[in-house]
Design a protein that fits this description.
3 helices, 3 strands, elongated
Length: 68
């Protein structure tokens, strides 16, 4: 597959990249949001800051962090 562009970090901090499939459709592959949330939390952010930074509701952030 041909790469459309290098890794991009979305405004909500999720890392993604895009490739062309064999018929030239663009496919975006992204880091799972639970991974993004855990990465932020493990870097020392509060649950509230993780929610704000990732544009994810606080209850979901809390569930992701507690499910570890």
């Amino acid at each position: 597959m041909d790469l459309v562009r290098d890794i991009l970090e979305q405004s909500w901090r999720q890392r993604v990249f895009r490739v062309y499939d064999p018929v030239k459709y663009i496919i975006e592959i992204g880091e799972p949001m639970n991974v993004v949330i855990r990465r932020f939390y493990e870097s020392g952010m509060t649950l509230e800051k993780v929610a704000e930074r990732s544009s994810t509701p606080l209850n979901i952030v809390t569930n992701v962090v507690e499910s570890k």
